[in-house]
Write a structure and sequence with these properties.
By secondary structure, the protein is mainly beta. The chain has one domain: Beta Barrel (Maltoporin, Chain A). It contains six helices and 44 strands. 50% of the residues are buried. It is found in: Cell outer membrane.
């Protein structure tokens, strides 16, 4: 069904719902006392502050209290608090993979994210983008393409992390948390007015420690520990019509990595080609018997991330109708993680047949093989600046914004090093000088310089007192220069890659890098949105919007040859999207009720998808000529050094579509009891698969599903009950949160669905003081659930999952003043 027909059909439903809501509103107002009122929630989804009930976007908001009562301590905790959002880590919690409406980013390489996170409205880098959950004002999740008003073009959505701003009142808080697995956390914030109504600063800090809950029976310490620290300094200055807010934000994480649990093997696969299928199968069964809280690591893992951010926001108000705003951002990211992403060790095979590869000699004593191990280092610096002129014209009928945006991201030293090895084998030969060899090469180096430039205009014009038309248009140019190649000296499992700077790559310094070259690509697009907004009554708002969005193309690495050369780069992805919504507050028999519903449908062309399994196995080439065996070598040249990084290729797989509904219900049953229900119900289709001239890719294209970790149904419910305690405490607040998700699809495997229940009790204002106490239990029933997939490849022959935390409990004490 076309976008226009879908819009018309759902528009009738919205109109019918609006009429029904008007009738309910009128009837309830006559016979109720209306003593209870639902809280108004303020968002900046359109870059200005407004009520969430009058913004034409599907938006989920967690304010300061909600973040605290939902026990949000990390980026991935957000997943169980907001429906339709997948936030599992791509290599750990410090490198989150944001997924909304089936749109995400490639796990390897230079793909632009389909969902961008923002800190204080400054876009975060694609890698190492975890924002510390410290002293936050709110978190807003915007669903659907956001390519007109926000800095980066996205096809899936945006996540806005808004820190608490300085104010002119002396105050602050300090808190301590203790819990299971030796959890210890200290956090606090201090707000200091420096000059009355002119200058104020705010300081916040956090230190969070917890032992690992995944037992490592292999090399290294236990996994899934927490060791993070964060510090933020903010300064607010207001002089006349000029307002300036400066933020310095620092965070650091350093732990021993995360647990991976293998769950299945497949045959025939590369494991058979490597001669280790039986050994792997036995190990997978052994670990499955132990359970998902066990890992047998082949090497000492780690996860490190250091992030420094500077934000400066300057606003000058000419008059009530005209404001100039400049938003500057600069940040550096130093991400380094080394996960054992198959959850298995290494395997020793006996004598391999003579003459397997002439480079390694005619006879072998034995070989040691690892399946999939990884090391990713990303050191990036990013500068961005956005200039906006906002105004009100035509007797207050037109609200408009005109702006320009610039971003440049470039290597900070070594750039990105991806040392993912797939089916890496170390051979021991009988020939002096040829004691070792490898079927999969060393680290692959990416030096990416990316620039994005955009100009945009957006406006909303009041056609009547209740009906307005909204439109926006944005022109974007994305340029990138990528120098890439492979380590000249292959490294065996656990060893460090070679470190060098960008000039060595561009100058083709063969002492440290081989097969190096530069790839340049430019893409541009005009994105737009057009919509109608109707304030049916003061409490009922309905809207319809059509949007065109895009995300830039990119490149694969290293430099390909042979049959893969045509897939060195991939084209931009574009989306045409509609969204129709109805947001209503009414009163039924004295009970305030809020119902929000939105329908969405998007058509994606040139959809970008990941293809796994593109790696030369140890038996891909025959002896003595080095001729590729059909179906075993991705490019036909018998050279593992130029195989795709991690065996993964990003390419334009075809045309896709996604549609569904987002639902929100909230009722303030009594002054003390509230109920909230949220749901996302969605479906995804691959409408067309593009033909491929490469037989290797054509054979595996069914596994290149562009909907990474797509869930059809997600439900979330919250019951909140408060009890006044008189002289004992101001109130006791009890929260019960329930989360349920259907299975998630990733390539050839599916993550099973699961349900979680979290409980929390907060005792506020003990004995009339600023002391609060809280007790929380997450995953009350101690469910064993797969949070994300670490590896899913039938051609390779293995599925491995990353499991979510077990039952976690803790006690929190806080003093506020």
């Amino acid at each position: 069904m076309s976008i226009q027909k879908r819009a018309a059909s759902f528009g009738l439903c919205i109109l019918s719902s609006s009429i029904a809501a008007i009738s309910s509103q009128s009837y309830a107002a006559e016979g109720s006392r209306e003593t209870l009122v639902l809280e108004e929630i303020i968002v900046n989804a359109r870059r200005v502050e407004e009520s969430t009930q009058s913004v034409p976007v599907t938006v989920a908001v967690l304010d300061n209290d909600a973040l605290r009562e939902a026990n949000i301590t990390s980026t991935t905790d957000l997943q169980q608090a907001v429906t339709g959002v997948f936030l599992a880590g791509s290599g750990g919690p410090q490198n989150p993979l944001y997924v909304i409406r089936g749109q995400s980013k490639g796990l390897i390489g230079t793909t632009s994210p389909a969902v961008v996170s923002y800190f204080a409205e400054v876009p975060q880098p694609a890698w190492g983008s975890a924002v510390p959950q410290v002293d936050m004002s709110n978190i807003q999740v915007l669903k659907g393409p956001q390519g007109t008003l926000f800095g980066r073009n996205t096809t899936g959505g945006a996540i806005l992390y808004s820190p608490n701003a300085p104010s002119y009142e002396l105050g602050g808080y300090g808190g301590v948390t203790l819990g299971r697995y030796n959890a210890r956390r200290i956090q606090g914030a201090l707000n200091i007015p420096l000059l009355e109504d002119k200058l104020a600063m705010r300081i916040a800090a956090d230190k969070n420690l917890r032992d690992g809950y995944t037992k490592n029976i292999g090399v290294g310490d236990d996994l899934d520990a927490v060791d993070t620290e964060a510090f933020r300094f903010s300064l607010l200055a207001e002089f006349g019509n000029l307002t300036n807010t400066f933020i310095y934000d620092y965070s650091k994480s350093d732990n021993d990595g995360f647990g991976v649990h293998p769950v299945a093997t497949y045959e025939p696969s590369a494991l058979n080609q490597l001669g280790i299928a039986d050994q792997v199968k036995n190990d997978v069964m052994r670990l499955k018997d132990l359970g998902p809280r066990y890992n047998d690591s082949a090497f000492d893992q780690h996860e490190k991330n250091e992030r420094k951010v500077i934000v400066n926001r300057t606003e000058y108000t000419f008059n009530d109708n005209l404001t100039l705003m400049n938003l500057f951002g600069y940040q550096t990211t130093d991400l380094d993680y080394a996960p054992n992403i198959d959850g298995l060790g290494t395997y020793t095979s006996p004598v391999v047949e003579a003459g397997l590869s002439s480079a390694f000699g005619p006879a072998f004593v034995d070989s040691q093989t690892s399946i999939v191990k990884a090391r990713l280092i990303d050191r990036t610096k990013q500068l961005s600046n956005e200039l906006q002129l906002r105004g009100i014209s035509f007797d207050d009928k037109l609200n408009w914004i005109v702006g320009a945006f610039y971003l440049k991201s470039e290597p900070d030293g070594v750039g990105q090093i991806n040392a993912t090895t797939v089916a890496q084998t170390q051979y021991h030969t009988l020939i002096p000088g040829f004691e070792t060899g490898y079927t999969n090469g060393g680290a692959q180096h990416f030096f990416l310089t990316e620039e994005s430039k955009a100009v945009f205009v957006h406006g909303e014009f009041a056609l009547t007192d209740t009906l307005s038309m909204e439109a926006g248009i944005r022109y974007t140019e994305d340029d990138f220069n990528l120098c890439l190649g492979s380590d000249a000296v292959p490294a065996w499992l656990g060893s460090d890659p070679t470190f060098f700077n960008e000039s060595a790559c561009k100058n083709n310094d063969t002492s440290v890098i081989v097969n190096s070259a530069e790839v340049n690509q430019k893409s541009n697009a005009t994105t737009w949105s057009v919509g109608l907004n109707w304030h049916v009554t003061d409490n009922i708002f309905t809207y319809g919007v059509i949007r065109h969005g895009y995300r830039a193309g990119g490149a694969n690495g290293p430099i390909f040859s042979g049959e893969l050369a045509q897939h060195q780069t991939f084209e931009p992805e574009e989306v045409d999207d509609i969204e129709l919504g109805l947001k209503a507050d009414w009163n039924i028999a004295g009970i305030p009720v809020r119902t929000n519903i939105s329908y969405f449908y998007g058509e994606y062309t040139n959809a970008q998808g990941d293809l796994a399994g593109g790696v030369t196995t140890s038996r891909a080439c025959t002896s003595p000529t080095g001729t590729a065996v059909a179906g075993l070598d991705p490019d036909g040249d018998c050279n593992a050094l130029n195989d795709p990084t991690g065996g993964a290729i990003v390419l334009n797989v075809g045309d896709t579509s996604v549609d569904g509904v987002d639902l929100e219900f909230m009722a303030l049953v009594t002054e003390n009891l509230s109920i909230r229900l949220n749901a996302t119900i969605q479906d995804a289709d691959i409408d067309k698969v593009y033909a491929q001239s490469n037989a290797f890719i054509e054979d595996k294209i069914p596994s290149a599903i562009p909907f990474l970790n797509f869930c059809n149904t997600v439900l979330q419910a919250n019951i909140k009950y408060s009890i006044p305690l008189g002289d004992i405490a101001s109130e006791l607040v009890l929260n019960a949160n329930y989360y349920d998700t259907s299975e998630a699809q990733k390539a050839g495997s599916k993550l099973p669905g699961y349900s979680l229940t979290n409980l929390r009790a907060d005792l506020y204002g003990i004995r009339g003081t600023g002391v609060d106490l809280a007790l929380f239990v997450n995953n009350v029933t101690d469910e064993e659930y797969a949070l994300s997939s670490s590896i899913s490849s039938q051609p390779l022959g293995l599925d491995a999952f990353i499991y979510g935390p077990p039952r976690i409990w803790g006690l929190e004490a806080r003093y506020s003043f």
